[in-house]
Amino acid sequence: xxxxxxxxxxxxxxxxxxxxxxxxxxxxxxxxxxxxxxxxxxxxxxxxxxxxxxxxxxxxxxxxxxxxxxxxxxxxxxxxxxxxxxxxxxxxxxxxxxxxxxxxxxxxxxxxxxxxxxxxxxxxxxxxxxxxxxxxxxxxxxxxxxxxxxxxxxxxxxxxxxxxxxxxxxxxx
Length: 173
Prior knowledge:
Pfam families: CDO_I. Keywords: Dioxygenase, Iron, Metal-binding, Oxidoreductase, Thioether bond. One of its GO terms (biological process) is L-cysteine catabolic process. By secondary structure, the chain is α+β, with helices and mostly antiparallel strands. It contains 3 helices and 10 strands. The protein has helices at about 5-15, 25-40, 45-50, and strands spanning about 60-65, 70-75, 85, 90-95, 100-105, 110-120, 125-130, 135-140, 145-155, 165-170. The chain has a 5-stranded antiparallel β-sheet with strand order 1-2-9-4-7. A hairpin with a 4-residue loop joins β5 (about 100-105) and β6 (about 110-120).
């Protein structure tokens, strides 16, 4: 599954993300931001990777991972969307190509949230957040065409299937 990057490149990425303070520290976020800035600055390299695609949806492609972090390339087909969610771990992402619209939400109870802000994220955009939140958002690709983003999460992909903590339902504010 981690065959998208060479073993040497995977090792370099994972070493860059290792900090003594772990994945819930500002040092880790700074390291993740640096890795993402490097990766989004190489869109041709990322687009040449043999990434899986899902018609009408998005596909997650594991690029590198260990017991502390996982690095994913996500290919967004036009019209695809995540659920409204927050994360149990640190979450960083960068846009490689296309554009992804990020909508932020405010929880009104344990399962419902209202939208508060929406921004279109263009190639080169990088963001990092700790799970101390609230960090409730939804990612969508309105098109045209596909988009590719790189996500770095502070969790072991072999222990947990996803970075999502809670899924919310949108309500009108």
